[in-house]
Each structure stands twice: as structure tokens, then as C-alpha cells.
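Summary for the steering committee. One of the milestones for this cycle was to obtain a three-dimensional model of the protein with adenosine monophosphate bound, which we needed before selecting residues for the alanine scan. The sequence and ligand used are listed below.
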Amino acid sequence: MKIIMLGAPGAGKGTQAKMIAEKYRVPHVSTGDIFRANIKNGTELGMEAKKYMDQGLLVPDELTVKILLDRVAQPDCADGYVLDGFPRNIPQAEVLDKALSELGEKIDYAIDVDVPDENIVRRMSGRRACLSCGATYHIEHIPPKKEGICDKCGQPLVLRDDDKPETVQNRLKVYHEQTQPLIDFYTAKGVLRTVDGTKSMEDVFASIVEILG
Ligand code: AMP
């Protein structure tokens, strides 16, 4: 099963993607996580990506597309995957579509986690991330057991640079201009499903499970 998660930054699609990956036993493929791992390891790709990420801008397609196609060509992706954060614009969606159709494959579902802009900025300022293992939390909705410390690896939690309010505004602008058109793109393909992302994490997941079966 090949699934794409759509939705504004902070809509909760990453959390849902991880839950889908666990229940349906498919890899969770997040381009944002791949970039962050590269930044942490000080790679050239990481240094380049950081320039854009810190401003809330999209990393150029030349860098992003190759990384994603390499990742989904790995053996663990043979039976499907859940893509979180890719595609982010129509050209990326077209490249993915072409690569899949060359293999006689297609995306099964594009799930749009729908949350109005008003909720987003408030939500994102409460997000906390572990830069060490990639776990994410929310100070109100998914708090760690011990404040400021990752449950999984014990490292300190931080507000990611790209979750800071000024960057969030930019990310929302980029989302509306570049990513939202994907809703029409996947509607035309008959695979778009929308869930109400303002509900609790569990309720959103229940709606997704109803769709995926
Ligand atoms: P995310 O963790 O998905 O919210 O991604 C964090 C940041 O990484 C984004 O704001 C972009 O700067 C960059 N990024 C992640 N995925 C992509 C993508 N598919 N295309 C371009 N930039 C991306």
C-alpha cells in the first residue's frame, strides 16, 4: 500500500504517518527527517538543505527528488510506504507519478489531514522534537513523561528552528502556494481522502483506518 500524507505543516500528518507505518507495517518515509539526519551528520546535503529549511522555504527539487526516489527504491519499500512531506509541489508529484508508472505502480491513497490556518501557528509553537532520535512531542497534546526530555532516548527536546512562529508563517505561505494544489492533483486521480485534523490524534487515526481498511 502506497500512501501520501498531505496537510499544512503542523496538521499532525507526521504523527499519523508514524501510526500508519506501525499498524500497516510499511516504512515511514519523511523527507524532512532525511534532511534533519543529514544536518545532524554535517553532510554537504544537510548544509545545503538547512539554508532553506531555516527560512521555511522548500529545499530545491533537484536535491529533494533524488533523495526520495533513492529511498523508495530500497528493498524495505517494495510492499509500500507512507510518504510524509513529499511531494510538496506539483513538479515533485509528477516525477513520483512518472517513476511509479514506469514500474507499473501507483499511489493508492493521498490522505489530506485538514486543519484551518488559525489552529496551525498555535499548535506549532507547542511542538518539541528530539534532534537525537527524531521523536516528536507536543507540550499540550503529546507531552513527554519528563518535561523537556525525550521518552525514547533521554536527550533534551527543542523547538525546531523551522517551528518558530516567524518561520511557521512562511511555511504556511509556501504550503498554500505550492503544496495545496496537490489536493486537486490527487482528487483528479481519484485517490484523495480528507480527514478532519482538528480532532484528537486517536480520532484522526480512526478515520484513517476506516479509509485504509
Ligand atoms: P517537514 O519535517 O516535512 O515539515 O519538513 C521540514 C522542512 O524540510 C520543510 O519546511 C522544507 O524546508 C524541507 N522539506 C521537507 N520535505 C520537502 C520536500 N518534499 N520538498 C522540499 N523541501 C522539503
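Key point for the committee: The pocket of adenosine monophosphate is lined by residues 9, 30-32, 35, 52-53, 56-59, 64, 85-86, 88, 92, 162, 171 (CB under 6 Å).
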